[in-house]
Automatic annotation (TrEMBL):
InterPro entries: Cro/C1-type_HTH, Lambda_DNA-bd_dom_sf, TPR-like_helical_dom_sf, TPR_rpt, TransReg_Diox_bact_type. It holds the Pfam family HTH_3. This is Transcriptional regulator with XRE-family HTH domain. Gene3D superfamilies: lambda repressor-like DNA-binding domains, Tetratricopeptide repeat domain. PROSITE patterns: HTH_CROC1. GO terms for cellular component: cytosol.
């Protein structure tokens, strides 16, 4: 454990343990009054004095200065790296425990700062988004106060992602734009930070019904000008690091932990690109023009509320581009892989491949994939919905896309059956923006099958789910 308190308290505690008087500790080089000032916290010893006191007290200068012996510090460094590795392999609960241990035992501000950032990310992965936001905000404020100690970008990008998760689109957009502006000022237009900030901002623009900015950003991001061993290399490095630590070879353990972390991180750009490709496909299927083409003059302005304005389906050209992007969206986790399946089916409906879309969606629903438990240790559950609620949202969305395919087939009866099932499931979801979007699309589909009463009910429920009173708003104009 770290030594108690500050330098002075550690000096005093060790002096008393060694049964030395202040005069005996001072010796011929220092005065007992100077020792008294150090112990009371009124003087900070110089490095030379620290070495002198440490020699007389039988400890290391590092212990007096920071309360942690070098070997203990090394063990905490290893623990922090292993916690990061647990987070990367999709085990946020183990990661949180590791980061908590480092935070509790370390007096090193740099190590503690890294552990706090890791803990916030673990909480985000565990679905405790509100608590994660609090920690990310603290880290952002600290970085702004002391820019020389750490980067401001990681907590800001994480905050943009977290605010988007909880539906605070204003904050998500503001922070995402600040992050991209900073990266562009640095001339950095590649890498995980640029890709992740851009992905979050693209989705926030789409959710805020701002297709013009979404198209502009998507174009910059996606169409810029100009052996038999199947275990990842990082797993081998981590195993070697753990074994070295068990043998007491802390130096080797730290080295292999660094190598493992680097090997894991090397795969990040691939996954980041896949997540960006998925975000781009979803934007194209929400009415954003193809990123491969320049924006048309007189583009549709953003609406006040995304779910109130008639939802514009993507064009056939946009759907083809979305399908091409989804081919690159591989290696994602369970939740985003589900989104890929639904987005691909929606794109297939738009390009007219109805049989393929229906087959994929029916298999998805019939086999229970939508409501099955995640196969990994990761829980991708945004607050306030629980894990079942998130999976229910995906199931409802899959049913709505299936109903759209049935409508395109001209099979109104089949579409009605699917919509009835979707409506019943949708009623189990809590109010919020996700439910509002789903009710909005439900209303559009009831319009398509010429069921105006059901459509009106769905539009009213969309407003209520978004927290808007139907008595204080102008009635919705149904899409034509």
């Amino acid at each position: 454990m770290p030594g108690p308190g500050n330098v002075g308290e550690r000096v005093r505690n060790l002096r008393l343990t060694r049964r030395l008087s202040q005069a005996q500790l001072a010796g011929h080089d220092l005065s007992d009054s100077y020792i008294s000032l150090i112990e009371s916290g009124k003087r900070t010893p110089t490095p030379t004095v620290l070495r002198m006191l440490a020699e007389r007290l039988g400890c290391t200068p590092e212990y007096l200065a920071e309360g942690v012996e070098p070997e203990q510090r090394a063990h905490l460094e290893v623990r922090e790296r292993h916690a990061h590795l647990a987070l990367l392999r999709g085990d946020p609960a183990t990661a949180e425990a590791g980061f908590d241990e480092v935070i509790a035992r370390s007096d090193d501000p740099d190590l503690t700062g890294r552990a706090r950032l890791g803990r916030a990310r673990a909480l985000e992965e565990l679905g405790r988004t509100d608590r994660a936001i609090e920690l990310f905000e603290e880290l952002r404020e600290q970085a702004e106060r002391d820019p020389g100690r750490g980067s401001w970008l990681p907590p800001v990008i994480a905050l943009a992602r977290s605010y988007h998760t909880v539906g605070d689109l204003g904050q998500a957009v503001a922070l995402g734009e600040r992050a991209l502006e900073r990266l562009e000022r640095l001339g950095l237009h590649a890498g995980h930070e640029y890709t992740e900030a851009g992905r979050i901002l693209l989705l926030a623009y789409v959710d805020r019904s701002d297709p013009v900015r979404a198209h502009e950003l998507g174009r910059r991001l996606l169409h810029p000008v100009g052996s038999e061993d199947t275990e990842p290399l990082g797993v081998h490095y981590q195993r070697a690091s753990m074994r070295a630590l068990e043998e007491g070879a802390v130096g080797d353990s730290l080295y292999f932990a660094d190598q493992a972390l680097a090997a894991r991180t090397d795969t990040t750009p691939v996954q980041a690109h896949a997540r960006l490709a998925l975000a781009g496909a979803k934007a194209l299927l929400r009415g954003v023009e193809p990123f491969s083409a320049a924006a048309r003059p007189g583009a549709v302005p953003s609406g006040e509320y995304g779910f109130e304005r008639p939802r514009q389906e993507g064009t056939r050209e946009a759907a083809r581009e979305a399908l091409a992007l989804l081919q690159d969206a591989t290696g994602l986790d369970d939740a985003e892989s589900t989104e890929c399946t639904i987005a691909k089916a929606r794109a297939l409906v738009l390009v007219g491949d109805l049989d393929e879309a229906i087959a994929a969606l029916e298999q998805f629903l019939d086999t229970g994939m939508a409501l099955s438990a995640p196969t990994s240790g990761r829980t991708m559950t945004p607050q306030p919905a629980d894990e079942l609620g998130v999976r229910t949202q995906k199931t409802v969305l899959a049913r709505l896309v299936l109903a759209r395919a049935r409508v395109a087939q001209g099979n109104t009866n089949a579409a009605q059956v699917v919509l009835r099932a979707a409506s019943e499931q949708l009623a189990t979801l809590p109010e919020g923006r996700p439910a509002a979007h789903l009710y909005r699309e439900l209303g559009e589909l009831y319009e398509l099958i010429e069921s105006p009463e059901s459509a009106a009910t769905a539009y009213r429920q969309a407003l209520e789910a978004a927290g808007l009173s139907v008595f204080n708003r102008v009635p919705l104009t149904a899409p034509h």
